[in-house]
Amino acid sequence: MSNCNCHSQSDVHFGDYFSENIYTWCTNCGNYGIAAAVKRALAAQKIAPCQTLLCFDIGCHGNGSDKIGGYRFHGLHGRVIAFACGASVANRKIKVVAFGGDGGTLGEGVGHLIAGIRGNYEVMFVFHNNLNYGLTQGQASATTKVGVKMNSSPDGVTSDPLNAMKFVLSLNPSFAARTFSGDIKHMTETFEAGLKHKGFSFIEVLQSCPTYNHMTPHEWYQERVKDVSEIKNYKSNDLSAALEIADDLEKQIAIGVLYQNLKAIPFMDRQANRVGKKTQLVDEVKNIGVSKLFDAFR
Amino acid sequence: MSKLDRISIKICGESGQGINSIGEVVARALKKSGFYTFGYREYPSLIKGGYASVQIDFSDHPVNASSRETDVLVCFSRVAFHAYLPMLRTGGQVIHTVQMPQLSEEEQQLVIDKKIRIAYVGAYEIAQEIGGRSIMANSVMVGALWQLTGLVFPPLEDVVRGEFSTKPDYIEPNIKCLKKGFDSNLEGLSPLVINFPPDEKRKTDALLTGNHLVSLGAVACGVRAYFAYPMTPSSSILSYMADIYKETGMLVKQLDDEISVAQMAIGAMFMGTRALVATSGGGFDLMTESVTLSAMTETPFVCILAQRPGPATGLPTWTAASDLNLAVYSGHGEFTRLVIALSDSKSAYSVVQKAFDIAEKYQMPVIVLTEKQIAESLFQLDDMEGFFDVKRHLENDDRLKTLVSTDRFKITESGISPRWLPGQADATYVGNSDEHLTDGTLTEDAQTSLAMQSKRLRKLETLLLELPEPELIGPQNAKLTFVGWGSVKNTIDDVIAIWNEQHPKKSINFLHYEYVYPVKVEKLKELIRRKQSLVLLENNAFGQLGGLLTQQTGYLFSDKLLKFDGRPFFIEDVLNYLEGRLGD
Known about the structure:
The complex is a heterodimer.
Chain A: H1 30-44, E1 52-56, E2 71-74, H2 80-90, E3 95-101, H3 102-106, H4 110-119, E4 124-129, H5 164-169, E5 175-180, H6 184-196, E6 201-206, H7 218-224, E7 225-227, H8 239-246, E8 253-260, H9 291-295
Parallel strand pairs in A: 1-2, 1-3, 3-4, 4-6, 5-6, 7-8
Antiparallel strand pairs in A: 5-8
Chain B: E1 7-15, H1 19-32, E2 36-42, E3 49-59, E4 70-75, H2 78-84, E5 88-96, H3 105-113, E6 117-120, H4 123-129, H5 137-149, H6 154-163, H7 171-182, E7 206-209, H8 210-220, E8 225-228, H9 235-243, H10 245-248, E9 251-254, H11 258-271, E10 275-279, H12 281-297, E11 301-307, H13 324-329, E12 338-341, H14 345-362, E13 365-371, H15 372-375, E14 378-381, H16 397-402, E15 430-432, H17 446-466, E16 471-473, E17 480-485, H18 488-502, E18 508-513, E19 515-517, H19 522-529, E20 533-538, H20 544-553, E21 560-562, H21 571-582
Parallel strand pairs in B: 1-4, 4-5, 5-6, 8-9, 8-10, 10-11, 11-13, 12-13, 17-18, 17-20, 20-21
Antiparallel strand pairs in B: 1-3, 2-3, 7-14, 12-19, 16-18
Helix pairs in contact in B: 1-6, 4-5, 5-7, 8-9, 8-14, 11-12, 18-21
C-alpha cells in the first residue's frame, strides 16, 4: 500500500488538526477541552492527521467527528470499540483512537469494552464520562448516581451506579488512566501517555455536562481531584493499589495513570501466525495460491 | 418410477460414534475405486446420542445430490436402526451392530414387502479380540461394508492408512479390524450389483465440503482477517480457517458476539484489508444494524449467511433456504446491497471472490447465502473453477497526490465515488453514519441529503448493468422449467440427467438464480411470454425468490414445489413430482 508522506519533512502542529466546521456543543461543555487536548497530544506525539484514525461513537462527543482533522469514523451507538479494534489490527502503522460516552460504552457496548481490554488491541479509548445520556436529552446512564432525578427517572434513579474505573481494573487492563475535562494540560499529558502505550489504553475523562448534569460541574471535580504522582509511594504498576484508589468518587478522586502494565503484549503480537511478519494486513490483499491446500483433500 | 443411476450407502448411528469420519472414509475409498461420490450429512444438535448419518451416493458420472432412499444401511445404534430402516429401497440390505433388534409389526411387514435383508456383525467383539478399542468396531463395519460392495480391498486400505497417518500406532490394529470385517460372514446378504464402470481419473479427485471451498475462495482472493462467532452451519469455516492459519498467515479470531464480528470486519475493511465474516440467521439478525453502517459509510462488507431452518433456534443442524428475505430486506432505511447465493461446488469457491470484488468496487454490503446442505455436504471435484484476479478499485498513486477530502463521497453518475484508505493521502475524510456531505461532514440539509441518498441508491442501477441474467440449465427448449436458487440446483442437475434421458419428449430445464438481489428478469420474462410451464422450486415455505420475481414481473407462480422440513430436496422429491405432472 502506498503511504502519504506529507509530514516526512515537517513537524506536526496543533493546527494540522484544524477543521473549518463549527462546534455544535453547549457552552461550557467538557468536549471543547477534550478536543483541544486530543489535538495537542497527537501533535506532541508527532502523529500526523493522515496517519491517525479517530473513531467516534454516537453521542454528544461524536458530533465532533467532523470538527477535527485526521481520518475519522463516526459509527453506530455503542460499537466504537469493536470498530476501532478491527481497524487497529488491519494496519498497525495508523494510530487508532476511539471515543465513547458512558451511555454507549457501559450500556449497549459494554461487551466490546471487555473484549477490547482482554484482547489488548492497540487502541487508545477515551471514555467521556459525564454521568448521563446527553444527546438524547439527559437520561440516566450506568454511571448516574442513585436518587438523581433525570429525564425518564422522575423520582430519581433507582439502580446503583457503576464505578467504571473499578470495572475496568477488574478486567486486568494494560493501561488505565483518569483525567478531567476542566484541565487541558492534565488531559494532554494523560492522552500522550495513552498514545505511547502499546496496547489498549483506557482513559476515563470525568466530564462536565452543564446542561443535564448539575451535580458535578468542573468546579466540583476541581476541588476533589488529586494526581497519583502527588500520592506518596503510589506505584502505577500495582493493580490492587489502583483498585483501592479508584474506589473514591466523592471525596478525593484519583487522576493520572492509575495502572500500567508495560509487559502486556499487544493483540497482534499474541497471534502465533503473525509473529515476525513485517507487512500489515492491508498490504497483503492479493491473490494467493491455494492449490496446495486443495491438494490436501485429494 | 424413474430408474436411478447410482448406488447409495448410508452410515448411521449415534452422535459421537464417529459416523461422520466413517462416512468420509467410505466416500474416499469409493472415490479411490474410481467413482464419483456425493456425501450428505444428517446429525442432531447434541454431542452424544440421538441419531446421525452420512449417506454416500456414488456413480460413474458426477453426483450432486442425494437420493431419499438407500441401498445399504450400515448401522451402529438401535435408535438409528429404527429411524433409518424405512429409508431402504426395495432389495435393500442392512449390516448392523445392534444386539437382537426388536422389529415392530409394521417394520416386519416393511422388511417382507421391500425384500430387505439384514445381517448382524459382532464388530465390537471382533475389535476386542484383536485387542483394539471399541471405536475400532467402526473399521470392522467398514470392512464388512466393503465386502458387500464387491470392490477390491487395496483402495480402502490406502484410505484408512492415510486417515491414521498422524497416529501411526493405530494403523495396524485398524487394518486388522478392516480385514476381519472384510472376511466376516454376512449371512443372507449378496454383493451389490455395480453396473457402471470405474474410471482411473477419479482416484485423484478431491473431496471437500462447501465450507472448505468457501474458505479456499476467501484465501485465494486475499482475505486477510476472518472474524466469527460459532453458529452452525457456518462454524466449520471458522475451524478450517484456524486449521490453516499458519499456512495462510490470516488473522483468525473468534469474537464475543456477532455484533463485534460485523463491526471488527467493517473496521478492518475501512482501514483497507479484506475481512470476511460468516454466521447463520440468528447471528445475522444481530449484524443487520452493521450492514446498514456499511451501506451508509460506503465501507465494503462481505458476510456469508449460512442458512438453517428458523425462526429462533429452529432446527440448528438441518437445512433450509429460508433467509433470502432476511438477506434482501434486513436493516433499517433504504440502501443498495447485493445478495448472491451459492449452489454447487464451483460457486462455493468462486462466489466469495466475486463478492469481495463487488463489495470493494461499489463500497457496499454483499451478502453471500449458503445452506447447511451446501456448507456441510461432501463434494467431489478434480479441480477448482472460477478464480478471479484481485482488483482493489482504489485511487492510483498519481491521483492520491491531488485528492481533496470532498472527493471521497463525490456525487457521480454511477453512484460510485473515489476510494482511498487511511494513511494513503493527505486528504482525510469522515466515514459518517449520519447523513453527510461529500467529505463526510455531518449534514441535515434536505437538498444535500436527497443528493447523497440518490447517489448511493444509483449504485443499484449501475450494479444491475453488470450482473448476469440467470442461467438456463438443461435443454434450451423443454416441456417444463423449474425456477430456483441455492442447493436445489444440485438436485435438479441430477434430476435433469435422469429424467431427460428416460423422457426425451418431456424434458425439463432449470432457470438458476445465483445473483438473487437485485434480480435480473429478462430471461424469465421471455419464458413467460412464451407461455412456458414454470414451477417454482425452493427449500422454504413462502417461495421467497418467487416473491421477488413477482415484484419485478407481475407474474404469479401458480405451480410451486416447496419443501421446508429441514431436509434438502432429494432427487425422488422432484422425480415423483414429475411423474405426477408429466408421467404416463
